Amino acid sequence: MDIAAMSMILSQGQVRQQAGIQLAAKIMDMSEVQSNELVKRMEQSVTPEIGRSIDIQI
To answer: pTM above 0.70?
Structure first.
């Protein structure tokens, strides 16, 4: 195998590795956002009456 072919193979491998790392990072970010939203919804379900009405006295 010549040097040019080996260089191409290594370069393609590096590109695939970088794409995999970026995809994993994106998935981790999305998971964090989803888990934060789930926590907020769970907190709201504990006290669902909060924010539904306002008491006004004249």
So the answer is: no
Task: Quote the CA–CA distance of 8 and 41 in Å, as a whole number.
Answer: 50
Give the model confidence (pLDDT) of 39-50 as tens digits.
988 887 777 677
Q: Minimal CA–CA distance to 41: which of 29, 33, 54, 53? A: 33
Cα separation, 19 vs 27, in Å, equals 12
Sequence letter at residue 21: I
* Pairwise CA distance, residues 3 & 21, whole Å: 27
User: How far apart (Å, rounded) are the C-alpha atoms in residues 32 and 27?
Assistant: 9
